Amino acid sequence: MTDLINFYLIPGLVLGSIYALGAIGLTLTFGILRFANFAHGETMTLGAYFAWSLVQLTGWHPIAVLPVAMGLTVLVVLGIDRGFYKPFRASPTIMLVIASFGMMLMVRSVVQFIWGVQVKAMVPGIQMPLVLFDWLRISPKHIMIIAAALVLMFSVHYLLTYTRIGKAMRAMSDSPELARLTGIDTEAVIRATWIIGAALAAAAGVLLALDTHVQTMMGFKLLLPVFAATILGGIGRPYGAVAGGLVIGLAEELSSYPWIGTEPLLNPGYKAGVAFAIMVAMLIWRPSGLFRGKVY
Amino acid sequence: MDQSYGIFLYIISLLTMGGIYAILTLGLNIQWGFTGLFNAGIAGFYAIGAYVSAILTTAPTARHLGGYEMPYWVAFIAAILVAGMLAWAVGRICLRLRSDYLAIATIGIAEIFRLILKNETWATNGPRGVSQVPKPFETLPEPWNHLAFLAMVLITVAVIYLALETARKSPWGRVMTAIRENEPAARAAGKNVARFRMEGFVFGCMLMALAGAFTAHYLKFIGPNATDPLTATFLVWVMLVVGGSASNKGAILGAFMMWAIWSATEILTTRLPDDLAIRTAYIRIFLIGLVLQIVLQKFPQGIFPEQRLKSTARTGESAGGDAS
């Protein structure tokens, strides 16, 4: 039982919070710009590499440089939107999907060119886990990741619920035509969507790198579970994305627990398949997701 | 070995791989160009074809599933059928939704398939891959063995091209265009949209599997990382978009042209010092990506724009709506 909590449940929650942060951005761009952004994974990679460089430069903790890394990533993503997505605003959205697919490889190749492909450590050395009540083992970085994710999620919740631009975003996600008729500045909404999405994606990348390593393929490996979380939660539903991320993260980790006998229930090599299986099941039975999102 | 003979062999290999990419691009053209379906997992169907054909034809070995030593044509047909069945299953789930979902699902299928190839060592020899795959015509003397293989690939490309051109002009092809251009109108005309979409998707994936089978036999080896799956998928997309979506000529020309550029720049970069060579490899991917973006924005028609069929009946200005 303690094994289940220490080695499966807690890592599952950590992974789930990271997926949730990535999925919020993806679900917002899917809901408001109406396309599946394949470059979202690379946005996470970019955030992680910015943070790594900042840590090298300043010697501070990754969490301390996190806001700067998020800001830099936002600038890059806004530049990408202007140069590569804006010309397609009036085109069928499938053109945006192709453009983002190309952008995924372009961003990754730039990262590989600048930083190289060697695996890097965000924080050198091994941290000892804290032991609570004699049995609960949780490492400080896991506490930090979950705390940072919670702070970011509550900020987004506040932004979407109480601010003017947040309300405009929700309005545009529900009905772009009505939003435009009521005088909402659609370009401002699109900009806000990219800013929030990119900032959260960068945070997800930094937190994952803090938990594991900095790698050029980390974003692509995140892409499938994050898409699964988005569809599970329902497209255009930020709270759904949080729930979806947690479910996918927990399912991936718990799938390799020896529920029956002593062998892992599922070969850990197939962890990524769990997210995909959940996504396919949702597409078959309930494409609108748990939170009744949109189906295109 | 004199230099001109080396160049001769290089051109043959360039044309052979170019031809294999042309098959892939024609397959994607059925899906994207004709039917408007976004397949982001080309590499997955390509790998399925390669593995099925390789496993069916290799001599007995303890390293992986195999030892069936089937003739090539049986292996090719098997590769096509397996990929077709898988494509049908994917299509059943995704084709009723918008193409974004198909893109996500196909990229997922390609990833899952790569996981299976890496983990199921008993069948695929894991990351080390299937080697000593037999090659058609390899008993012929040099350079006739290479030429014969090239001829097989080019004849296949020609046959597929002729078949697709016929299909494009047939009522079937007209319905495909109608669905892509205006789905509600096609539906209103009583066309079974779901069935036509499924046919386009399955046929396209079958061609991709055939290209994969050819590659496995041509290189005599196939492994989960024989080519970076995403780069392969991406390259095929660039080939089609640059050549001209919905144009079979454009697909073939785009494939040969982009493959020649891709392969020539690879030779250039390997001449550079090691550290620089690795870095310029990434610049290459970046530049190809940039070409895709520029063509998408400025020349969405590609080099060979789609040839619109002239309708015999009066149809007004709306394009491609006549499917009778």
List the helices and strands and how they pair.
The complex is a heterodimer of chains A (296) and B (324).
Chain A: H1 2-32, H2 40-58, H3 62-85, H4 93-115, E1 130-132, E2 136-138, H5 140-162, H6 164-174, H7 176-181, H8 186-211, H9 218-233, H10 238-254, H11 271-285
Antiparallel strand pairs in A: 1-2
Helix pairs in contact in A: 1-5, 1-8, 1-9, 1-10, 2-3, 2-4, 2-8, 2-9, 3-8, 5-6, 5-8, 6-8, 9-10, 9-11, 10-11
Chain B: H1 3-34, H2 42-57, H3 72-94, H4 99-119, H5 121-124, E1 130-131, H6 144-169, H7 171-181, H8 183-188, H9 193-219, E2 221-222, H10 229-243, H11 248-270, H12 274-298
Antiparallel strand pairs in B: 1-2
Helix pairs in contact in B: 1-6, 1-9, 1-10, 1-11, 2-3, 2-4, 2-9, 3-9, 6-7, 7-9, 10-11, 10-12, 11-12
How would you sum up this structure, described in words?
The complex is a heterodimer of chains A (296) and B (324). With 296 residues, chain A is mostly helical. Helix content of chain A is 71%, strand content 2%. Chain A has 11 helices and 2 strands, in the order H-H-H-H-E-E-H-H-H-H-H-H-H. In chain A, strands 1-2 form a two-stranded antiparallel sheet. In chain A, strand 1 and strand 2 (136-138) form a beta hairpin. In chain A, helix 1 packs across helix 9 (218-233), helix 2 runs parallel beside helix 4 (93-115) and helix 2 packs across helix 9 (218-233). Chain A starts with a helix and ends in an 11-residue tail after the last helix. Chain B is built from 12 helices and 2 strands; from the N terminus they run αααααβααααβααα. In chain B, helix 1 crosses helix 10, helix 2 packs parallel to helix 4 and helix 11 packs antiparallel against helix 12 (274-298). Chain B is globular, with a radius of gyration of 20 Å. The A-B interface holds A 30, 35-36, 38, 84, 87-88, 93-95, 97-99, 101-106, 108-110, 112-113, 117, 220, 223-224, 227, 231, 267, 269-270, 272-273, 276, 279-280, 283-284, 287, 295-296 and B 36, 38, 40, 93-94, 97-101, 103-105, 107-108, 111-112, 115, 118-119, 230-231, 234, 237-238, 241, 278-279, 282-286, 289-290, 292-293, 296-297, 300.
